[in-house]
Amino acid sequence: MRSDANLTAERPTYVTNLECSATGEHYPADTLQQLSQAGKPLLVRYDLARIGRELSRDAIESRPSDMWRWRELLPVRRKEDIVSLGEIETPLIPIPRSGGANVLVKDEGRLPTGSFKARGLVMAVSMAKALGVKRIAMPTNGNAGAALAAYASRCGIETVILCPEDTPEANVREIALQGGRVWRVNGLIDECGAIVAEGTRQGRWFDLSTLKEPYRIEGKKTMGLELALQLGWKLPDAIFYPTGGGTGLIGMWKAFDELEALGWIGSERPKMFAVQAAGCAPIVKAFDEGTDHAERWENAHTVAAGIRVPKALGDFLILKAVRESGGAALAVEDEATLQAVADAAGQDGLLLCPEGGATLAAYREALADGLVGVDDEVVLFNCATGLKYPMPPVENDLDRHQPIDFDAL
Amino acid sequence: MRSDANLTAERPTYVTNLECSATGEHYPADTLQQLSQAGKPLLVRYDLARIGRELSRDAIESRPSDMWRWRELLPVRRKEDIVSLGEIETPLIPIPRSGGANVLVKDEGRLPTGSFKARGLVMAVSMAKALGVKRIAMPTNGNAGAALAAYASRCGIETVILCPEDTPEANVREIALQGGRVWRVNGLIDECGAIVAEGTRQGRWFDLSTLKEPYRIEGKKTMGLELALQLGWKLPDAIFYPTGGGTGLIGMWKAFDELEALGWIGSERPKMFAVQAAGCAPIVKAFDEGTDHAERWENAHTVAAGIRVPKALGDFLILKAVRESGGAALAVEDEATLQAVADAAGQDGLLLCPEGGATLAAYREALADGLVGVDDEVVLFNCATGLKYPMPPVENDLDRHQPIDFDAL
Q: How much is the average pLDDT of A99-121?
């Protein structure tokens, strides 16, 4: 009980194979893979028919509520490969004043290292450990790097992490403190990714970039699994998701299909809203223009560093999910994002990160434009704790050696 | 289900009265109270015999795992008074490399506003709301103020929050962003408290200072309740707790007595170690000198801002619990604290706050001094997320326009 108090029990696993997300070509599970031969992301496939026969919703609900309750729908075979830092189920928090009576925030800032990146990285690092990887590299806008450093250091895997030079200071420092070899690069995340790719070609490390290996998406998928369970096996009417690389959106869409195949939910789906910043909105542009792939966004800039991703490898998967769902891709101005952060904190006591603020701003615009109704049940994803980001300064000093003007306090 | 997805069900309540912690004098429940007439903290009493007949450990375990599963042992009568921001059960995380095979960290940084202060403040603010309070004031070293501002803003209660001028910048800013009226004062927390007390005498606000009202301790008590449940209704051999005002230590000690009265645990208790900084160690001095009360510590200084409390109102309750438990009060140097933070982050991937680092440093010293054994099961309390505190700077720049020296990465 004691020393593995936060770990899952041993469970049977059901992974059958990996599959190219573009061509459907199969690849063997339990081998180290990056992209498919078509250069596209690989997806993990499970024997869902057998899971459906051998597992029930009630069994899942009776387990401890961390993300390992979903073990049969996850790729890690052996309990001892799980490199856990306590991946709790994140709470759904109403924001009635700043959002509305039917708006819930899924507060992903409660996860290890303070962001939803922990979901993907705990899975990818556990699988890397299981498959014998000794050195990992990755580009990051901050939070993914922090999660990678923490999990990798915990199991003795070396990491090289490259981030844009203006990545939030807290992110860079936590990566280093958690044992990552972190470098500030004079470029954006895809330009950092190009350096990682070159090192990968040279055989220097395993590449853990978004969607360049099959397992981060399996971790992110648990956001969709959790949401279904937390809402009584019924999905919300709409989901607003801050979209950079889009792994979480793609992952949730996959999760909903798997839950339906198990017979645990029906065929209804939430409208999926991919939220981007007006200063970096490649998915929004592609959505509006009706194309399947997105062009690189030049001169990307936004206060929401986490969604400053000029080019996403999974663009076609994001666009497909958004369109199938009847949702949309929406761009919001930084000013609206910062106002949303201030409103949620000041009125509902919930400190969002800028990317989370962007989802509230997008919800407000979608409501005004009639894309969602005021009675629709809506979930906004706050992808990280707001504490990592700059907050407005305070200039209130009180001299206790002078008479106190209590009326002014 | 939806809009109160994170709230408890309606439950019966069992509060009987309030009781002076020094004289045993009774006071009526469900009325607004500060200190007892003897100037000492009031404790909440319950009809434990009836709870024991009507509630079981199994019933508790079958509920959602947030802190409201303990509702019968908590003071809030009506569900609608609970001002929740998602008070999850915090995980226990092994730190085998930096701590040892039997060392678990209870990671309180996962709570709303990133610290264990949320436990006390959600309870005190919910009760203040229930009892009609409109304006609250409090001194803080940072985290308590952040929690107060968040919960109070959420239910429309105005707050005035006073902190030492060198309180961590992130704390001051989050208090303001979350709607608190925050003032930096040229003094320590007890000197801020004197200003709050003067305003209380003038009838300007309700005083939510540590132990000056009965409910913060009831919230903090849930740390002890959770620990018992998480460890299979068996307490650890030792608890290391960062001690400023000491509410949590007093609260856990009360929780253990209540659990024993219910017959849910036996009479065994952990050794309680009250951890202070060498630069502010009034409880350690009183413990070493065998006195019941502690003198104010002059010229208090430490990097662990949260435990820079020169004078604790509950000193006699802290000292009583520590002595009854067979534990000790221990002081650690800032250098050892910062080394412990670096070790836990770099070796186990867990970013502790300085106060949490102090508990690891104290554990190491207690182990060296034979106060605990290497086989003892130990729980360290990491009272807040490490992300709020300064971290060492990083000087690693990489110019992507120059040839990359991959061997140097």
A: 98
- For residue B180, name the pLDDT band (cuts at 50, 70, 90): very high
pLDDT number for residue B4: 45
Mutate which of A69, A380, A396 to disrupt the B interface (most B C-beta within 10 Å)? A396
Residues shown for chain A:
409
Tens digit of each residue's pLDDT (9 = 90 or more) over A11-38: 999 999 999 999 999 999 999 999 999 9
Percent of chain A with pLDDT over 70: 98
**CA angle centred on B126, ends B125 and B127, rounded to 5°:** 90
Q: Quick check: A195 contacting B, CB < 8 Å?
A: yes
Average pLDDT of every residue of chain B: 96
Q: Report the C-alpha gap between B68 and B87 in whole angstroms.
A: 8
For testing the chain A interface, which of B121, B167, B174, B177 should be mutated: the one with the most A CBs within 10 Å?
B177
Nearest to A391 among B3, B137, B173 (CB): B173
pLDDT computed for residue B9 by the predictor = 84
CA–chain centroid gap for B146, Å, is 13
User: What's A385's DSSP letter?
Assistant: B
Instruction: Read off the DSSP letter of residue B104.
Output: E
Q: Is A137 on the interface with B (CB under 8 A)?
A: yes
C-beta atoms of A179 and B349 within 8 A:
yes
Coil, strand, or helix at residue A181?
A: strand
Is some CB atom of chain B closer than 8 A to the CB atom of A149?
yes
Give the closest residue to B230 by CA, choosing from A107, A201, A7, A111.
A7
Record: contact B6-A94, CB cut-off 8 A: yes
- Beta strand B15-20 with B42-46 is antiparallel
Q: What is the DSSP letter of B181?
A: E
- Distance CA(A116)–CA(A141), nearest Å, equals 13
How many angstroms away from the CA of A154 is the closest CA of chain B? 4
User: Two tokens at A246?
Assistant: 């889009």
Distance CA B104, CA A5 (A): 9
**Nearest in space to B153 (alpha carbons), one of B176, B130, B119:** B176
Say yes or no: B343 contacts chain A, CB-CB below 8 A: no
Q: Find the distance separating the first CA and the last CA of chain B, reported in whole Å.
A: 51
Token reading at A100: 């509305």
Give the model confidence (pLDDT) of B26-70 as tens digits.
999 999 999 999 999 999 999 999 999 999 999 999 999 999 999
What are the percentages of helix, strand and coil residues in chain A, rounded to 5?
Answer: 40, 15, 45
Cα angle value B388/B392/B395 (rounded, 5°): 130
The closest alpha carbon to B4, from A238, A104, A90, belongs to A104
How confident is the model over A56-63, as a mean pLDDT?
A: 95
Enumerate domains of chain A plus CATH numbers: 117-207 (3.40.50.1100), 216-387 (3.40.50.1100)
Residues of B in contact with A95 (CB under 8 A): none
pLDDT digits (tens, 9 = 90+) for B298-351: 999 999 999 999 999 999 999 999 999 999 999 999 999 999 999 999 999 999
